[in-house]
Write a structure and sequence with these properties.
By secondary structure, the chain is of the alpha/beta class. The chain contains nine helices and eleven strands. The strands form three sheets. A six-stranded parallel β-sheet has the order 8-7-6-9-10-11, with helices on both faces. The protein has a three-stranded antiparallel β-sheet with strand order 1-2-5, with helices on one face. A two-stranded antiparallel sheet has the order 3-4.
Length: 265
């Protein structure tokens, strides 16, 4: 469990055995390679041995056993993508799926965070905008933003600390000519970014919080405190077809796939 965000990631592995009462028992044969799409905070897990630690990409290689309940969602690992690439993308596949639901051509979309979920959200937003509208990426790392700009995932990049709400508002106001964003997607991996999201969206706009560090209290009372009429959604990590949509993004966007391979494989 991540002590900052409270989230736990997910795992990939092979089926050892499947209950005959499982609804997918006919398909889940021993040896089937799959990725669990439920948080490890909800997954009974025994780790026998940690064989490698990869802090730069938030991954552990382990030997162990886990239980996936019949109600737990999963995806069979594709044969055409490396396991580690699929793991990186499927870990955050709920984010681009919800972006696909809410982005429409002509919108101004701001994404906070240039990591895995941020990159996928920008790619999906670019696809949904269909050449109409604008994409703004914000991250504290100029290097991460440069990588996204280099593959055409944003029209504007803001190198800023998302915990500094007023400074973020000023930059977004400048870029949008005062109109602000129609949709803000918060994929930041740190706490106290709620107000930057709320201030950056127009009245009547929408904020999707995908950051597990989001505080309901800060978001709700913050919007009230600044008199902002904004719809706020909590991304729960699941949307029908989210795994297939995310893997298809990697297949259809070679530059995005290369970025993920450079960072996470």
């Amino acid at each position: 469990q991540n002590p900052v965000t409270g989230s736990g990631g997910m795992l990939i592995g092979r089926v050892r055995e499947c209950s005959p009462e499982h609804p997918d028992a006919a398909r889940l044969k021993p040896g089937t390679r799959l990725a669990t799409l439920v948080s490890l905070t909800l997954t009974p897990l025994v780790i026998d041995e940690v064989t490698a630690v990869h802090p730069a990409i938030d991954r552990l290689d382990v030997k162990g056993r886990a239980i996936l309940f019949a109600s737990g969602i999963y995806a069979e690992l594709p044969a055409d993508l490396p396991d580690t690439l699929a793991l990186a993308a499927l870990d955050v596949c709920g984010a681009p799926a919800l972006v696909a639901r809410y982005v429409r051509p002509g919108m101004r979309v701001l994404v906070l965070g240039a990591g895995k979920s941020g990159a996928l959200c920008l790619a999906q937003a670019r696809k949904a905008l269909a050449g109409q509208g604008s994409l703004i990426a914000l991250d504290i790392s100029p290097k991460a933003l440069g990588a996204l700009e280099g593959i055409g995932l944003c029209d504007h990049a803001i190198a800023a600390d998302a915990t500094q709400a007023v400074a973020v508002l000023e930059r977004v106001r400048e870029i949008t000519g005062g109109a602000l964003a129609d949709l803000v997607v918060n994929c930041a991996s740190v706490a106290q970014t709620e107000m930057a999201s709320i201030l950056s969206v127009r009245d009547g706009g929408t904020v999707i919080f995908f950051s597990m560090a989001t505080s309901f209290t800060s978001a709700a009372l913050g919007a009230e405190g600044v008199g902002k009429d904004v719809t706020m959604l909590v991304g729960n990590g699941y949307a029908p077809g989210h795994a297939a949509l995310t893997l298809e993004l990697l297949r259809s966007e070679p530059k995005l796939r290369r970025l993920f391979e450079e960072r996470y494989v």
